[in-house]
């Protein structure tokens, strides 16, 4: 037989599940605080970079979702444990009215969750600012009222089946009574007609439902408080046609072959296929109307503040640029190319007149992320504050309303959801740099084989299997990238690196983009071929063959694909 504590634990898990569903919905709709999300983000903020890099290398983007799932389970177990404690208190106060029961079943878990959130907020560097404790106090109220309401309902329903310690269960007691009554020839006891069995009256249900709705209305009304940041979807605008590629493909070029048509067509990555790596479980949603960009620090004409519409009214600049995550493995797919449009960061800084002692630019973001780049990078013509991606407003997952595009530096330096830019007189270490990742995060010169093989299949459209056949032309193709240094040469080997031949290179969309390369290959013999690629940047630096892990400077080594010809 299941004991009383186990049954109460199950009731707590059920009530906790409902509370978490309400909290998650409130988080998505109104930007509320979701404790499992905060807990998993705190774990990431405290995890040493080397351990974090290993988890990313093993699980990829699933690493943070695994931590999130574990946090949800722990939160559920905590709610289950609280139910056991609360049931003992409920047993003593069950004679009180419904409101008294609801208050004691909601107030204690509310205080527990507020205390946990306060500790996490103090530990985490992802969520900063003096208003965060107020967020916890406000946004944790409704889910815990729901939790208390569910417990009250479940406790009342189970009052007849979860007796105090030392008391026989009601069904066993009824059986004894009926057995004795039968022996005496008396009428058997019908528990359904006994008024002592607690039921929830219509008045109680209406009272508690009205209280729950009232709390919800209060929280939504409180969205106008100064410490609340409204959320919304990106401002809509018509999709505009992208400019044509910088260079046409000449007739007879290898890139004009039908086999390579889908490959060339995917030189620009669609928004939905563009890689996404950040610390957020739930994508931040920012209202453009209330959003402000604050520019401050070592400025002669500062601080300055811009609205979203003021930035869009300024002269715009456009840039084809490739972004790659520093966690991208040699054979990985955390790399994509897009057409960005926005405002030149250089123009913003020139208006503000940077003081001579400034050496670093710090980006701070609405999700608490921060990172710094050298001042000279910010003054490059290709560095922009982008508000459009591939002809449409930035998608929320890629940084709406504003993100940085910084040529030559890994994706972690290209901040998303920017709210503040500060000029400082010191080398600044951002979120990942405080965990040991490179602060001088220049792209490694590297290359990848797209086919044959499986690399980058998530970024390219409808690539054929392209199985090599004896005596038939079988193109080998891929991408090479070296940041703003550009690529001057790509070489391919089909014998594991013993001999090399130059591949054809398509003119890139810009000097800040990856290049597409291809080579016609006609296998002359059956068997296994070890296909390897290497690239040389325009500064004359040959890609290193040394195999190095992604932490702390990005992975290096040659990409090798084994192909069998039969």
Structural account:
With 566 residues, the chain is an alpha+beta fold. It folds into three domains: 4-159 and 198-224, no CATH class; 269-435, Sulfite Oxidase, Chain A, domain 2 (Alpha-Beta Complex), CATH 3.90.420; 446-565, Immunoglobulin-like. It is built from 13 helices and 18 strands. The chain has a five-stranded mixed sheet with strand order 2-1-10-5-6. Helix 5 runs antiparallel to helix 6 (132-139). The longest helix has 32 residues, at 62-93. It is globular and about 85 Å long. The protein starts with a helix and ends with a strand. Mean pLDDT is 82; it is low at 126-132, 191-200 and 215-240.
Task: List strands and helices in order, with pairings.
Blueprint (H helix, E strand, L loop, with lengths): L3 H27 L4 H12 L2 H11 L2 H32 L4 H26 L8 H8 L1 H17 L12 H15 L17 H20 L39 H5 L26 E6 L6 E4 H6 L3 E8 L10 E10 H8 L7 E6 L4 E5 H4 L5 E6 L2 E2 L9 E3 L12 E7 L21 E6 L24 E6 L5 E7 L7 E2 L1 E2 L9 E5 L7 E11 L21 E7 L1
Parallel strand pairs: 1-10
Antiparallel strand pairs: 1-2, 3-4, 4-7, 5-6, 5-10, 7-8, 7-9, 11-12, 12-16, 13-14, 13-17, 15-16, 17-18
Helix pairs in contact: 1-4, 1-7, 2-4, 2-5, 4-5, 5-6, 5-7, 7-9
């Amino acid at each position: 037989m299941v004991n009383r504590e186990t049954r109460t634990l199950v009731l707590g898990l059920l009530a906790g599940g409902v509370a978490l569903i309400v909290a998650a919905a409130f988080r998505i709709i109104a930007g509320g605080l979701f404790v499992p999300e905060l807990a998993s983000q705190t774990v990431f903020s405290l995890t040493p970079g080397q351990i974090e890099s290993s988890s990313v290398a093993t699980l990829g983007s699933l690493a943070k979702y695994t931590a999130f799932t574990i946090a949800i389970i722990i939160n559920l177990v905590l709610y289950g444990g609280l139910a056991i404690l609360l049931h003992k208190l409920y047993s003593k106060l069950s004679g009180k009215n419904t409101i008294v029961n609801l208050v004691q079943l909601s107030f204690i878990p509310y205080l527990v969750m507020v205390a946990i959130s306060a500790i996490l907020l103090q530990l985490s560097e992802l969520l900063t600012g003096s208003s965060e404790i107020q967020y916890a106090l406000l946004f944790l109220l409704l889910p815990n009222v729901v939790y208390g309401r569910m417990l009250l309902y479940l406790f009342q329903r189970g009052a007849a089946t979860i007796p105090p310690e030392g008391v026989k269960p009601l069904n066993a007691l009824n059986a004894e009574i009926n057995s004795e009554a039968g022996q005496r020839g008396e009428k058997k006891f019908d528990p359904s007609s006994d008024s002592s069995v607690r039921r929830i009256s219509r008045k109680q249900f209406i009272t508690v439902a009205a209280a729950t709705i009232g709390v919800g209305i209060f929280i939504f009304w409180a969205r106008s408080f100064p410490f609340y940041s409204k959320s919304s979807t990106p401002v809509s605008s018509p999709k505009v046609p992208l400019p044509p590629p910088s260079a046409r493909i000449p007739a007879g070029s290898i890139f004009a072959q039908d086999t390579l048509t889908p490959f060339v067509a995917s030189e620009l990555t669609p928004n939905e296929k563009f890689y996404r790596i950040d610390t957020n479980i739930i994508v931040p949603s920012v209202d453009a109307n209330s959003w402000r960009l604050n520019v401050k620090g070592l400025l002669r004409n500062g601080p300055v503040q811009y609205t979203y519409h003021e930035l869009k009214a300024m002269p715009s600049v456009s840039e084809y640029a490739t972004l790659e995550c520093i966690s991208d493995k040699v054979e990985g797919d955390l790399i994509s190319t897009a057409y960005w449009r926005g405002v030149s960061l250089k123009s913003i800084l020139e208006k503000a007149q940077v003081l001579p002692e400034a050496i670093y630019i710090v980006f701070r973001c609405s999700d608490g992320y921060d990172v710094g780049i050298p001042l000279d990078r910010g003054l490059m013509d290709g560095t922009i504050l982008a508000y459009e991606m591939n002809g449409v407003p930035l998608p929320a997952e890629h940084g709406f309303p504003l993100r940085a595009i910084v040529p030559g530096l890994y994706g972690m330096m290209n901040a998303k959801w920017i709210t503040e830019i500060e000029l400082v007189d010191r080398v600044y270490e951002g979120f990942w740099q405080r965990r040991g990742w490179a602060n001088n995060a220049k792209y490694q010169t590297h290359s990848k084989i797209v086919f044959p093989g499986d690399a980058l299949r998530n970024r390219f459209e409808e690539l054929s299997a392209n199985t090599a056949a004896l005596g038939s032309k079988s193109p080998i193709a891929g991408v090479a990238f070296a940041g703003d240094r550009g690529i001057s040469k790509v070489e391919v080997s089909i014998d594991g690196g013993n001999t090399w031949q130059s591949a054809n290179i398509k003119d890139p969309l810009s000097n800040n983009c990856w290049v597409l390369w291809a080579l016609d290959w006609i296998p002359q013999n059956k068997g296994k071929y070890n296909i390897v690629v290497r690239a040389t940047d325009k500064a004359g630096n040959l890609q290193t063959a040394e195999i190095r892990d992604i932490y702390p400077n990005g992975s290096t080594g040659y990409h090798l694909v084994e192909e069998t010809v039969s």
